[in-house]
# Entry
Amino acid sequence: MRSIAARFLTALALAMTVYQLTATQTPLQPSVLVQNTHLGIALQLVLLGAAIETESRLRRLWLLLVALIALGGALYVQINYDALIMNQGFPGRLDVWVGLALMFAVLETARQRWGAALPLIALVAVAYNFWGYMLPTAAAASRIPFDTVVSNLSIGLYSGLFGQFMAISANFIFLFMVFGGLLQSLDGNRAFAEIGKAASRAFPGGAGLSAVVSSSLMGTVTGAAVANVAITGSYTIPIMKREGYSAVTAGAIEAAASTGGQLVPPVMGSVAFIMAAVLSVTYLEVAAAAVIPAALFYLALLASVYFKSRQLGIARQKVAPDLRVLIRFLPVFVIPTGVLVYFLVNLYSVSFAGFWAIATLAATRLAMIPIDLVLSRPARPFTALAQELRVFTLKLLDGMAEGAKMGASIAVIIGAIGLLAESVTATGAAVPLGSAINLLSGGSMLLALMLTATMCILLGAGIPTVGAYILVSAIAGPIVVESGVDLFTANFFILYFAVMSSVTPPVAAAALAASAIAGAPYFRTASEATRLCIMLYILPFLLVYNSALLMRGDTFGHSVEAGLAAAAAAILLAAATQGFWISRAKPWERASFAAAAAAMIASITGFGAVWMLAALALTLAPTLTQFSRRRTAGVET
# Structure
């Protein structure tokens, strides 16, 4: 029975993929009905998937009941679309009940899939929207008729469950979840490990450097740090442990690399397209602004892993990259990504670019089959060709289905965020939060940013990158702007801290997944990942105080100058946290490197060139002593 249900679920996922891909090329339905179909099928995929997996009969019956409610609500919207549009703001009695049922279905499905935290926050915001006017005057919301609130949140079809966020999920995010699913199933990620081998063969660091490179490449398309850890960590973590990294360090490196991958252009875990839509700017502006910060983070992480490996005595990796694997599988990633970037740079729509990137990915992998056969030289080529085509078809269908399931999970969480964001906007609930932060900060922009950063980390905990960004942009975005930061920079600031929730205790979902694979204590793994990512906690503040790092300064030269100074700070900070430079660093040397990094950061944030000179002096002193110590000891490092 379960196998039949699983096949039905796969067929439904494939149908959703075909529908969404077709909708990018021809107008199948009005935009709102596309969103309704998207959300309706997404709810079924998540609920039925959970019902198949659970061992509890009672829970299975509950999930099926919620799925039935969700199906009824989606069908009601499809059938009564014209009447609902005409009655926006003034729904009938049945419309109100259906709207409430849809809201319940979305929140309960989000709870089943992602845990209770976000649905509970959304429920509180929705309750405040309904009954906030009953609170004391200082905390009261404006009184809006109950039916109108329901219309605004769901059945009115223009905000809340439907509107900008769900349109982004249907038109952008879903396509890139399918792209990521296909990249994995069609072996596009196999080249990543070989690229990592090349890096770890060139520099000391072994599998640690390999993990950083491969996980970052995969992370840019998965859109979820936890999923990326599960995909790449299963083979990177055991290799790191075999080479001499402790279980804690191996898990931390994987968690850190997988988290940072969400910030790497061109895809940025789908966030680049959402940010462009939110800011009403071109994708190219967002992607270009992300280049220097992403490079700085990975430079800092690579430096930390390098210094850590030197401290542990881990040498260069001896295993050479498999050129045959690179020849066979690197084009499966490079060509579709090139097609995607080409269309986006030439200002085609994101959905159009996503469709052709997916089509190119499938076509490229299909075209590589003859090359595979030439390289392997099978005794019976035609039989081998038929077998390869059969395997390709199965992998293609599997990738489309898995991508659809991940896209469905994202759609559900975005539905819950839509309810939260609409309630916050309608009631002005973000204003008291902003006032509280202004009061606590005493007018200090730095302190206000620190408080907002903490809020972003807490709000983003346990949520995929795209959902975390949408959530914190709705709540924390106005607060950062009110602190005096321009809207473009504010969105990067909140994005980075929302992403950092994946490795920041107490939740640290990516570190939790990595620690499970590594067999390491969770909290120690999360703490080590936080230490590896320390530059990522500082970087958003640098973006605020020096916009040249986002390529928004007066000249390109200023961006290069700021980028080089930040790179020096990142390397010095890595040396301080890992306790290694030319050789093992003594406590005073680590303190000197930390002070040098702080001085370099001061020069970047506008305190003057004298601080850069101070950084050079603070770096020079321990460097000379380490050279002298190495020469005296005659130790080869």
Observations:
- The longest helix spans residues 381-427.
- The chain has a mean pLDDT of 85.
- The two ends are 62 Å apart (CA to CA).
